[in-house]
Every structure is written in C-alpha cells, then in structure tokens.
Specification:
By secondary structure, the chain is an alpha+beta fold. It has 14 helices and 21 strands. A hairpin with a 3-residue loop joins strand 1 and strand 2. It binds one RNA strand of 75 nucleotides through helix 1, strand 1, strand 2, strand 3 and strand 6.
Length: 514
RNA sequence: GGGCGCGUAGCUCAAUGGUAGAGCAGCGGCCUUUUAAGCCGUUGGUUCAGGGUUCGAGCCCCUGCGCGCUCACCA
C-alpha cells in the first residue's frame, strides 16, 4: 500500500485529508467551477483599472498552492495554473474565524485550491484575489520540493530548487510542477513540432503514418530493437527510420509526404543520442538535394522565427544565426581545406587508413573507405561547422539510398546540416533506379560482416515498389529532439525529452523470465 | 561496455577517522497588507546497500546498485 511507507510528514497530510472527509468536506471533489485562468484574471482587472472601475470583478480561480504566508487574522497565498501565478488574500473579515482556520489547518503547499472572490490591488501593488470562499480541489499527500523565488532587481532567483537529475527525470511530474523553465522548454518543443507541420502543410505535403513494427527494418545503418508478435509467430523490428515506407508512397503517387514520429535505435546513449527519438522525414517528388537544401534553411529559420521570434540563437556559448543562406561546404573541398587531405587521391580504404594512422586518428581495422571518410569528417569538419552549414556530396558507399552525381558515380547527391558542430539533418536526391538500388543493397551486404547488427536485411518489397517506377525526388530527415535542444539552448537531449530512459528503480525485483 | 566523479533530513547543502548539522519545507506559538514575510520554540537521519579495516567509519578499503561526465559505439 502507498501509505505503508509514509513518513511522518506524509502521515500528517493524510490525517488532514481524512479529517476533512470526516467534516463532510470531500478532499477530491469531482468538479471545479473555475471560470478564469490566473493571467486572464489579472488582465481583466487591469483593464477595469484603466477604465477607472476596478471594483466588483468577481471570479472563481483555481490552481496549485505554491506559497503560503499566514499572518494570524489574514493569510496570503500564491496559486499557479497553466497561465501563471496569482495571489490570494484571505481575511477574517470576509471569511470568518472558522473558515480562515480551515485554510491554515488543512491546506498545504502543493494542494489544489479553488477560490471565489473579488479582484483587488494590495497595498504593495499586486493584483490579488480577495477571497470570499474557497475549497479543496485536491489534497497532495507528498510535499513538493521546497523552492522559493526571490525577486532581485526584477530577476527571479530560486532558492533550493530541485536540481538532482535523477529525481528530475525519474519524477518528471515533480520537476515540471516546481520548475517553470522546464515547462517552458516543453511548451517550445510543442510549438516547434506544430511549426514544422505548418511549414509542410502550407506547401501541400500530406502527413502520413507508417508502420513502427516492421518485419524488415531499413533506411539507416542502425541496430534495431526486436519484438515478437504472438499470433503471427513472427519476429518484428521497431523501425530505425521511415525512409523505405515513405518512398513506397512516392511510388503510390503521394508526391509530397511527411511523417513525424518515433524512431528506435538500439545503440549507445549520449547527449545527442537517445534510444527512441522523434524524427521528421519528408519526401518531395520532382525535387533534388539542391531544392531540399534551400527548403531546409527556410524551414529551420522560419520555425525559429515563429516559435522564438528570432533567427539568432544561443547554443553552447555560440551566437548562431539561422538566417538563410547557410554555409555550404563540399565534403571533398572541406577535407582539403581543413584536413589537407584530398580524398580523391586515396581511392582505396588502405590508402586512407595509412594516412589516418600517420595522423593517429583511431579507427577499427577493416573499416570501409566511406566510413573512414566519415571519421575524417567528424575529426576535421564537425568542429568547424558551428554556424549553420550544409556539408554535401558524400561517398557512395555510406549512402546506399542516395543517387550518384551524374558526373561522378562514386559520389552521391547527399547533404547533412550541421549546427554547433552537431548533425541536425540528413537529405539526398533519392535513388529511384531499382537495379542500382539492388546493387547497392548487395554491396552493402558484402561490406558488413555476417554478424554485424548494422547489416540491413534486403527489403525485396521495397525493390519491387521501385520497379513500378518512383518519380525523381528529394528526401529529408531531421532529428526533432536535437532541433529542440538547439532552439532551447540545452546541452543534452534528456532536457528536451519528457521521460528520458533510466535504469529500473527497483532492482530488488526478481529476474524477469526470458 | 571502459575510465573518472558523485550518493548525508522532503529540497539545497555542511560535517580533520572522534556526540551527524544549517537554511528552506514541516510542527507549536505570536502577528489584519505579506511576497524568500517576520519573531520565538521545535520535530525530523538505515549518511544508497552489503561487507571489511579500526578502540571508533558519513569520511579509509572491497563489492553491488543508482546517477552524472567522458571515451567507445552511433550514416
């Protein structure tokens, strides 16, 4: 039972709750009669003041008790709802001794209260509800972490705020309840996703949903999560990307499609990697990677403008300007400029491996050429791509779904967008030649060892779809969580994911049956 | 998975190997315009868990658990 482990403090609250019930007062009433939120109440009162008629604005407000100051025959309190805080002013004059005592005796920080009264401005100038009646809406049995806000020169200084990351992530509800800036991050997150949708909707894109449980995973070199369907007696994978399904829709005539949803990759966790993450992919027929590049800088900057009201953001100590056009850096030229290596002079993995060994850049033996180039890119190029930069023209062998450049069969029309040295998005001119696609899958199969979990199984149905004819198209994917991280100035994805993954709390539990 | 660091009251934090403390929250009292309200008094601890060293361990050692940073991994 919940109450079995109650502390002294919690038992005290439990007793208060039970006493209320004994007095015939339901501590968890079914309905609330709140008729304004706190911010609107303040606005309405100020409007009446401006009109010279401040008296007589009677409202019923409600929210969580966040501060209480009892002063004998009167009490002040602050309540908080989604719109913000408002002060309650309770006097013995309006309430009488018994009712005021009820507040002092039975109401604690964290409880939800409903108060009816008249809007006034106190002597210190704060717009306040002078309470004529109140009632409990929900009794909190646990106390929220104590935090007090002090206003110093207009800045809010919080004392003893909840900061322990484990508690914050494990009990995100507590974090959200006491840390308004955390609520703000997730308000922005919602705004970003909404703005992304609007951007695509305005351009005639159709939003779709494709399978998360897939018999064959693909579209990215990633290790999948596996699961099992009992009735179908079939192993299924949680998708690692949407790509192969969305391109099937291009075959089906959905010329402009997108999906926003969750991808799952069974890999390491870091400040920029989470096992499940939100991805936006869109595909646009009759477009190529140049079109998509321009669209990307439009999309990212316009979303920032809509949500933050600015295209200039602060990230990891850098002032970053998202205004188009962004920097463009060709992969080969970038490596010549920043690494002094012309990859065209090293057509084999062995040649590149030698020069990397000479420079003491670690890599696993037997790594294919494309992956080595990628390592060079991460070493030399990522750190210089602080301002928004498109890195374009990738090696063919790490881009099995991208179309080769007409003049260079070993290079594909692909770009990644970087901000603050972190990869934000990935796009290419889509490969629509079914026979070439089949060849790429086969090449890829040979490049990976038999037991390499990143080795993608061949998706025969995808090839079948391509064989029916897919229009030339540009495709695009963006890590929405990373985007949110950048726009909110956070250092880690965990701060923009409501419930980040944590190890199980109770390890005393018996081993789960395998 | 490797390395490093951390784990003390509900929260934020103290405590040379020698009686575990403070502020806030809580509880009792005073207080009719407060806002980190104030004043007086006061409760509250499996110091993450288990083992070891020691006359004596929050502190030193070992193991485990959890969290963080970092490396590896990561189109």
């Amino acid at each position: 039972m919940l109450t079995d482990h109650f502390s002294e403090l919690e038992n005290l609250r439990l007793e208060k709750m039970e006493q209320l019930r004994q007095m015939g007062i339901e501590p968890y009433p079914t309905r609330s009669y709140k008729n304004s939120n706190n911010a609107d109440a303040i606005k309405a009162f100020e409007a009446r003041e401006a009109a010279g008629e401040p008296e007589g604005l009677k409202l019923t407000l409600a929210g969580r008790l966040r501060a209480i100051r009892n002063m004998g025959k009167l009490s002040f309190a602050h309540i908080e709802d989604r719109s913000g805080r408002i002060q309650l002013f309770m006097r013995i004059n309006e309430l009488g001794q018994e009712k005021l005592d009820q507040f002092v005796r039975f109401f604690d920080l964290g409880d939800f209260i409903e108060a009816t009264g008249t809007m006034v401005r106190t002597k210190r100038g704060e717009v306040t509800l002078q309470v004529e009646d109140f009632r409990m809406l929900s009794k909190a049995l646990y106390q929220l972490p104590a935090a007090k806000d002090e206003v110093v020169d207009g800045e809010i200084v919080r004392h003893a705020a909840l900061t322990d990351p484990e508690t914050r992530y494990r009990q995100r509800y507590v974090d959200l309840a006491v840390n308004p800036e955390v609520r703000e991050i997730f308000r922005i997150r919602t705004g970003i996703i909404k703005a992304l949708r609007e951007f695509l909707d305005e351009r005639g894109f159709q939003e779709v949903e494709t399978p998360i449980l897939q018999p064959i995973y693909g579209g990215a070199a990633a290790k999948p999560f596996t699961t099992y369907h009992n009735q179908l007696h079939q192993q299924l994978f949680l998708r690692v990307s949407f790509e192969l399904y969305l391109k099937r829709l291009l075959v089906g005539g959905l010329d402009r499609v997108y999906e926003i949803g969750r991808d799952f990759r069974n890999e390491g966790v870091s400040f920029k990697h989470n096992p499940e993450f939100t991805q936006l992919e869109f595909y646009m027929a009759y477009a190529d990677y140049n079109t998509i590049m321009e669209m990307t800088e439009q999309m990212v900057s316009q979303v920032a403008q809509r949500v933050l009201g600015t295209m200039v953001i602060e990230y990891e100590g850098h002032k970053i300007n998202l205004t188009p056009p962004w920097n463009r850096m060709q992969m080969r030229q970038g490596l010549i400029d920043h690494a002094g290596i012309d990859i065209q002079e090293y057509p084999t993995a062995e040649g590149l491996a030698d020069i990397m060994k000479a420079r003491q850049i670690p890599f696993k033996p037997g790594t294919p050429r494309g992956k080595l180039i990628n390592t060079l890119m991460e070493t030399y190029l990522e750190p210089v791509m602080i301002q928004p930069t498109f890195l374009y023209d990738y090696p063919r062998d790490i881009s099995p779904l991208a179309k080769a450049k007409p003049e260079d069969p070993n290079t594909v029309e692909r770009f990644e967008g970087y901000i603050g040295g972190v990869e934000l998005c990935n796009a290419f001119t889509e490969l629509n030649d079914p026979l070439d696609q089949e060849k790429r899958f086969l090449e890829l199969g040979r490049a990976y060892a038999e037991d390499d979990e990143e080795r993608n199984p061949m998706d025969e149905d995808f090839l079948r779809a391509l064989a029916y004819g897919m229009p030339p198209a540009g495709g695009f994917g963006i890590g929405v969580d990373r985007f949110v991280m950048m726009l909110t100035g956070q250092h880690t994805l965990r701060e923009v994911i409501l419930f980040p993954p944590l190890r199980e709390e109770d390890n005393a539990a018996p081993e789960a049956a395998e």
